[in-house]
Amino acid sequence: xxxxxxxxxxxxxxxxxxxxxxxxxxxxxxxxxxxxxxxxxxxxxxxxxxxxxxxxxxxxxxxxxxxxxxxxxxxxxxxxxxxxxxxxxxxxxxxxxxxxxxxxxxxxxxxxxxxxxxxxxxxxxxxxxxxxxxxxxxxxxxxxxxxxxxxxxxxxxxxxxxxxxxxxxxxxxxxxxxxxxxxxxxxxxxxxxxxxxxxxxxxxxxxxxxxxxxxxxxxxxxxxxxxxxxxxxxxxxxxxxxxxxxxxxxxxxxxxxxxxxxxxxxxxxxx
Length: 271
Prior knowledge:
The chain has 271 residues and is an alpha/beta fold. Helices cover 48% and strands 10% of the residues.
């Protein structure tokens, strides 16, 4: 299921509907519109209700406790277990994590920290002899215009980290995780064992999508936001864990987007 430019743009637009910031802005906008209308007892009740709902939503979406519950639930699916066993006929597959465009302050296109970390984790596995080849996958995810494919920049970074260019396979067309899996299958064919590298939170969805393509997936999550599993660490909670935090809002937003992605892929029959 590769998306046409129109449907890819529609897909990106619909994604905004699951962002918590969209919920907050929408609820705040409705509250403001109610407040601007001529006052009435019924309207005042709606304003009070929407104001309470807005404050409650903000407290939930900025709570470190909420972040721990959501993120740890995703990251706990595949716990770190050190280096995997070497696979003579396997391939290390590294998913991209985004690009930053060039500009007056940034003279060249750069990988995001997430994409750099994942590529570095893949290179580390290669240098430990886990598999003889490294595949980097990620295309141009722009809706309008065109630019560099993420995989091309990832290949440059992997080469700078000491991976020989002849050992790097580039898949530079995929724009979604599903396309990552499908196009990787086209490239690797019957080479069915892969060591999959991506961030810990997206790993459950990514590994499931690659398995549906017939791969024997060895997950190698790279980058954990949480220290403990959902059931652990509650005895160390302090007052700061119940105060609003910007980092918690960011992590909750990413976790909700990930959970929504899992739901959409299941509804579409891809998981």
